[in-house]
Amino acid sequence: MQIRPVKLSLIVAAMSLSLTACLPAEKQDAKVSINKNPFPSTYQALPQQTTLFTNATVLTGTGERLDNADVLIKDGKIVQLGVDVVASDAVTIDAQGKWLTPGIIDVHSHLGVYPSPSVESHSDGNEMTAPNTAEVWAEHSVWPQDPGFQAARAGGITTLQILPGSANLFGGRGVTLRNVPSETMQGMKFINAPYGLKMACGENPKRVYGNRKQLPSTRMGNVAGYRAAWAAATEYKRAWDKYYSDYDAGNNPQPPTRDLELDTLMGVLDGDILIHNHCYKAEEMAVMMDLGKEFNYNSGTFHHGIEAYKIADKLAENANCVAMWPDWWGFKMEAYDMVEENVAIVDAVKNSCAIVHSDSSTTIQRLNQEAGKVMYRANENGFELNAEDAIKWITFNAAKSLGISEKTGSLAQGKNADLVLWNTNPFSVYAQAEQVFIDGAKVYDRHDEKYQAKSDFLLGQE
Amino acid sequence: MKLIQKKQLKGLTVTLTTMLSLVFTTHLVQAKTTAITNATVYTVASQGILSQATVVIEDGTIIAINPEQVEADEIIDANERILTPGFIGSMNSLGLVEVGAVARTRDGSDKKADITFDGSLAFNPKSTLIAYTRKGGITSNIVAPDGGEGLFAGQTFAANLSGDFNSIIANQNAVLVYLGAESKGSRAQKLQLLDHKFADIQEKLTKKKAKDDKSPKTLKRDEKVIKSLLAGEKPLLAYADRATDLLALLALKEKYALDLVLVSASDAVLVADEIAAAKVPVIISAIDNLPSSFDSLHGSLSNMALLVKAGVKVILTPKGESHNLNQLRFDAGVAVANGLAKTDALSALTANVADVFKLNAGRIAVGKNADLVLWSADPFELSTKVDLMWINGKPVSTQSRQDALRDRYTGSSDMPRAYIK
């Protein structure tokens, strides 16, 4: 993503006020462009020091397990991974008997937008006023004081995507956050992570708007709604592309009128914004894949894909990630066909991208256990999965879905030092994150209160 | 100890590797006496944990533990695996809901449901939730309806998870009331109303005794239920979270000698000593640790352990929907990871529930229902599964609709999957 200098954005803003008709080609107005990052990250890593973990059982996040391994982190990065690593200037943590994994990533959270306490004044996650609200951004609803962020950190969550709710066909933009305490959303924002666009299939949009006697009230109404929006976005993009090419050819065209809703959709068509599509059912996911082809965008990650196991081949072939619960079911018709091996079945196909997500302020605290349940149930029924496989579902594959796998989601030289030290195998019910690191900085320590942050909200409550 | 297998089953040796499905296709179901031998038995009773023990069941009941001599139609070698009482779920809608958002599959609430509401009339033992719930080693359950618009939300009932039509163990076995924060109105109103209900009926009963009463001779149906609460014949299950509400309820218990049980009780840790002194059990989730409202600012994963430490009898209840009730054992594991003793966690899923709801289950002891679970390993661990399970002495399967779907989509066929059955 491009970060525009502030000075230029001011010029753009000034120009957009004074634009009138086309001027002669020989005299060009300042070029109008869209600031793609108007709420830039101010995140900075917490104070850190060079740290060496020794003799750990390491799960890399990319399918490998290393026993009795040492990991050295320095200046926010993983600098060495192996045996007998020596670092004289490092704080050494004896990780004998302990496990080290990449920081856990949840691709589907509503922390901050549906925070605790869940009072009416805090219900900021679902702009249920029109079926297409692609113009809203979840980041503008995030309350950084949600105590759920601290609880998730104690469960090893280092990165999470906050999504708008699923009432709308287009619910708005999601934002990827570092799970660090901050007074502002910008202070948590993952630097240069792409935005997500929340879409929703199925029951929710058709129920919400059907009850109001407006489109969509059916699944076919849902699809008509998506197609109308993408058709408009295609025209919008064409208009901007034409403006840029005319301008670059030396003409002085009039720029298209800004439309915040279409800006977001155009971001998807440009490949800058990634689709995160709440979509439970096999036949609906198949339609959404075709929709992506029709309008030439990547249909991205399917969330809550309860029936993904029915079309695991198609999903891998189309390069979709699928984020799933291990076993939630039955709360709606579209969640009726749950199987406990869903994630494993999706994962078993070549080139797949299976993810375990939470969508819950409770289970986000134990995403390791959520993944563990999948592994064990699948192994009882013919699969042969190991810890090094299961960890991928909550680290590397999640990072891939969010477009940040170059930076985090695995333990490898050069990657961000996001990691969790567990007291035991993280796929045990008794496992607890002992220490959590983000960009090399310790952000949580179960045995040291100094590293246990507390929300403003809970401070001084008796 | 001598083992005598009364009659050898034709062509079938019962071994550890006997698959559940095999058990079902044989005549083992009709076996009169079954001995589970060489088990690590968590009795949740005075005998504690027994190693290499034998449990004998007959006609649905546990008839012997470690007898001198074992005579049985069927002998199952547990190979030192753990045998526990079947777990008992509580405070959910199992059997009263199939799909949450499909109104016509929901029978747990009704605008007119009052203190007399008997949800057991709507219980569906064929619901797909029942078999799925058995995967969690749950053999019986206390169903709590959501009630209606009045003060009381109806009454709970106990059902076993056999899937048989005669699954109801006891109907109308406790009265439900929801207290605490109100989005319209004040919490004081309900607390006051509750007090008045008891006071009014108590007065009526006193007058009747004095024989100077001119009111109708018989009590109304709802009044009879209040009377049964005043007589301590069934528990009052009160949902409340804030410490002041919990204390107000303890005061009501004192005043009317109620068999009070606190449910949810997020603030219970603040008044744990008072609750323990009043001998009031608490039904609580082990994983409800976020400050979800101003009534529940003190949630913590350690709360269950702290309550037990203070001497409170606790029952572990799920947080959320009925569909995933089988996760209860993992919640117990989380409580253990946060300081609760394993044996206390087990009691919270078995004996304590049985005691509060007066069920002849929840312990492995002579005379108790043969509701038993043989586990592959530690019952709370994610990697463990139910190997064998009995309800009223009958083996039951843990196969569910979910398994049928999985098998359909993991098998191979040239034909569409719809042909795989």
What does this structure look like?
The complex is a heterodimer of chains A (462) and B (421). By secondary structure, chain A is α/β, with parallel strands linked by helices. Chain A has a domain at 104-410: Metal-dependent hydrolases (TIM Barrel). Chain A has helices at 6-18, 147-154, 203-210, 219-248, 260-269, 282-294, 312-317, 342-347, 367-379, 387-390, 396-402; strands spanning 51-59, 65-74, 77-82, 91-94, 99-102, 104-109, 157-162, 170-178, 196-200, 274-278, 301-303, 321-324, 354-356, 419-422, 433-438, 441-445. In chain A, strands 1, 2, 3, 4, 5, 14, 15 and 16 form an eight-stranded mixed beta sheet that branches. Chain A has an eight-stranded mixed beta sheet with strand order 6-7-8-9-10-11-12-13, with helices on both faces. In chain A, strand 11 (301-303), helix 7 and strand 12 (321-324) form a beta-alpha-beta unit. In chain A, helix 4 (219-248) crosses helix 5 (260-269). The radius of gyration of chain A is 23 Å and the shape is globular. The two termini of chain A are 45 Å apart. The relative contact order of chain A is 0.16. Mean pLDDT of chain A is 95; it is low at 1-21. Chain B is an alpha/beta fold. Chain B folds into two domains: 2-85 and 385-407, Urease, subunit C, domain 1, CATH 2.30.40; 88-359, TIM Barrel, CATH 3.20.20.140. Helix content of chain B is 26%, strand content 24%. In chain B, the strands form three sheets. In chain B, strands 2, 3, 4, 6, 7, 16, 17 and 18 form an eight-stranded mixed beta sheet that branches. The two termini of chain B are 46 Å apart. Mean pLDDT of chain B is 92; it is low at 7-29. The A-B interface holds A 116-119, 147-148, 151, 203, 309-310, 327-333, 336-341, 345, 361-362, 365-366, 369, 372-373, 376, 380-382, 427-432, 457-458, 461 and B 97-102, 129, 287-294, 297, 319-321, 323-324, 327, 330, 333-334, 336-337, 380-383, 385, 402-403, 405-406, 409-410, 417.
